[in-house]
């Protein structure tokens, strides 16, 4: 009998309890071990809840109980969650978490503590929600030199972009609808400004390199500047628009990491990732392109990923689980040095200048769009593009990278 | 130092050696163990080959060497491959294989032998080539009740169908081209008649149920009857056509397993799986839909999957790797009892009869198609459909299931 404690009885926490108890017999049959939830830590009481008697308010009850070998940290935040995770690991209890903020901020230290105390710090649920992603990356692609990871990592923004594309609607309208439906938070900054996607691409970059990528150094652009006109131009040129987290080994072996909206070819597998779904493409030097798709958020998908880590911790006891990174900071390749094709949305009066600046480019027009047109630059260095556009800020209304 | 033997120095075998030796330093850095190839078993000599001195002709050299803890069986076939795998497992050497034929036919016994001798029989490469699929299924979705697996499991037929769709071409033309390009074999029966996909969906069904699904009992329909006219009708109705292996828990808990070409909605994530790629959708009761995409065949992708199993065997030593099945045979739900929507391609003279037989249906016409039309039946039981069509065989030219 494996006794587990769940820290936080919110949405994901109640999901973890539901998965462990709801699929209990099935899990036992598969792994020949019985897993049950012994404690649920929460400050609140839950009178009438079927698991009411498991609620505790003092984390020390959990930390001091030698029966508890695995702790699920699904509280969120980097305060108490950090303290409790650290304490649990120091006592040799494995910690499984969905807390991407904590993993991105303190994962390096927590992984080190886990190693020193012969237990595991696991975070499958922190990226891509229910999508098996981290385990395939570190276990199945363990023989691969990973060349790039390109992912739709945020469901809220993907829902908004998909709806804008289908309905020709403006962002403000769709965002408001998404908030009313509960797909976007009232304070949607972390999502729409790309910070959530940034944390996730950093975690994946850490796993990819074995070192630490500081999210503060990752250029991050959200979707707030995307308009119905950008979609109109993109569609005519054969693209849709998706917010992508990108981590790529550039010429010379340096890593570039950034978050930005991209034009994605309509027949690209990532263009088929719609609504609240996430899709992450991982490219290895032997296997080529692979892609992982599923619900990137939500109570049960996220809980399922947390429980998969619990099972991994239980089954792997005494052996090594690959994956992790050290504290050496990765020196990133500057975004200005990366090359891309771009779609510019500019005043028609500027097209002559654009053709001079980017002679390999081509013009995109949309019927009914009177004042503006699109200009496909061809492949240019980001820094050169910025310099070229410097004098025309008022006439340039959109700058979008194209996924190669 | 972990010493590995490779059985068979063909395409996949040379790929395995290339992955282990080419990514050697990287693997060592990740798993803190050095893996090298000590022997390569082949009947042929390879004068001038960089690994010439590792070639042996007698399997007993490998079996008798206590240094060899893992064997990669990439010979193919169910004769010597079966004998050698069995002998290796009986001596406690783990076997990692890409041999789907052997896994489908003798996996039950080989898994049992591995268990009895404290080693592993692993076969990530047997389904979906380089796509991490089996490990996510048994490890990451270990807490899930799997409700269905629906997959594009054969790259050759997917290449043919994609090309037919894009070019409006007939199957014979595309198949001939594919053979010339080496994408299809000279004897393409195993692919185009669906037998290859059948073996793979059986392996996945075994893992899904924990019991044995006999491929001989799985209704298997290939793509030889698909025509340019079927694509024309499908496109008008908003679909493409893909060959799918399907394994689904039906009402009452019985499992239906079959292989057949399906209409797939153009905005479905599986419709984006084109050319030689494979894509497998796994649906769990907690996580919902997840999908795995990548190259389903080819030297290096397949080899990469074999080596990922080698790494798993090395790291998991002494602990349990989940996944496997026993010899209890799964009693399949008869295909005649399964319900689907269908697209029929019929002589226009039959449309009146179709409307009587399937009053919830609707007619699809394609301009330029004079004699025939499409009829969407609505949801019907397969057995009822077959009965209804029984009298009109000569007027019914195509019967295609629609992916729900």
Explain what the structure shows.
The structure is a homodimer of 404-residue chains. The first copy, chain A, has 404 residues and is an alpha/beta fold. Chain A folds into 3 domains: 146 residues, Rossmann fold, CATH 3.40.50; 157 residues, Dihydrodipicolinate Reductase, domain 2; 67 residues, Alpha-Beta Plaits (2-Layer Sandwich). In chain A, the strands form 2 sheets. In chain A, strands 11-10-7-8-9-15-12-14-13 form a 9-stranded mixed β-sheet, with helices on both faces. In chain A, helix 1 packs across helix 12. Chain A is elongated. The model of chain A has no long low-confidence stretch (mean pLDDT 96). At the A-B interface, helix 1, helix 2, helix 6, strand 10 and strand 11 of A face helix 1, helix 2, helix 6, strand 10 and strand 11 of B. Strand 11 of chain A pairs antiparallel with strand 11 of chain B, so a sheet runs across the interface.
TL;DR?
Two copies of one chain form a homodimer. Chain A is of the alpha/beta class and 404 residues long. The first copy, chain A, contains 14 helices and 15 strands.
What would you call the shape of chain A? elongated
Distance between the termini of chain A: 50 Å
Oligomer state of the chains in this structure: homodimer
Main interface by residue count: A-B, 67 and 67 residues
SSE ordering of chain A: EHHEEHEHEHEHEHHHHHEEEEHEHEEHE
Strand content of chain A: 25-35%
Tally of DSSP helical segments of chain A: 14
Q: What's the CATH C level of the largest domain in chain A?
A: Alpha Beta
């Amino acid at each position: 009998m494996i006794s587990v404690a769940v820290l936080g009885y919110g949405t994901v926490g109640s999901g973890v309890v539901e998965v462990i108890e709801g699929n209990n017999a099935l899990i036992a049959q598969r792994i020949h071990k019985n897993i049950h939830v012994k404690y649920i830590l929460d400050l609140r009481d839950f009178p009438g809840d079927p698991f009411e008697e498991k609620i505790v308010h003092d984390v020390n009850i959990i930390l001091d109980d030698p029966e508890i070998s695995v702790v699920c940290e699904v509280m969120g935040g980097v305060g108490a969650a950090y303290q409790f995770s650290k304490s649990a690991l120091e006592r040799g209890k494995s910690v499984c978490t969905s807390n991407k903020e904590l993993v991105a901020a303190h994962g390096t230290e927590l992984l080190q503590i886990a190693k020193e105390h012969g237990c595991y710090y696991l975070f499958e649920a922190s990226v891509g929600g229910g999508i098996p992603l981290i385990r395939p990356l570190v276990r199945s692609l363990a023989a691969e030199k990973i060349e790039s990871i390109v992912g739709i990592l945020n469901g809220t923004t993907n829902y908004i972009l998909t709806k804008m594309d289908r309905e020709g609607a403006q962002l403000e309208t769709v965002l408001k609808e998404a908030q009313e439906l509960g797909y976007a938070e009232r304070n949607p900054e972390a999502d729409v400004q790309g910070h959530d996607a940034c944390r996730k691409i950093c975690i994946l970059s850490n796993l990819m390199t074995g070192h630490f990528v500081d999210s503060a150094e990752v250029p991050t652009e959200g979707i707030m500047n995307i308009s119905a006109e950008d979609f109109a131009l993109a569609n005519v040129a054969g693209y849709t628009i998706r917010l992508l987290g990108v981590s790529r080994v550039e010429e010379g072996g340096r890593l570039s990491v950034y978050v930005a909206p991209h034009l994605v070819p309509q027949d690209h597998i990532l263009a088929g990732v719609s609504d609240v779904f996430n899709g992450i493409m991982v490219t290895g030097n032997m296997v080529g392109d692979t892609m992982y798709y599923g619900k990137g958020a939500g109570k049960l998908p996220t809980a399922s990923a947390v429980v998969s880590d619990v099972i991994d911790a239980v089954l792997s006891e005494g052996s090594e689980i690959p994956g992790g990174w050290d504290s050496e900071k990765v020196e990133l390749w500057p975004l200005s040095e990366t090359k891309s094709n771009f779609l510019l949305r500019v005043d028609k009066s500027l097209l002559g200048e654009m053709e001079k600046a980017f002679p390999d480019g081509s013009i995109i027009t949309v019927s009914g769009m009177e004042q503006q047109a699109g200009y496909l630059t061809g492949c240019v260095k980001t820094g050169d593009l910025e310099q070229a556009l410097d004098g025309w800020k008022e006439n340039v209304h959109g700058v979008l990278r194209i996924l190669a």
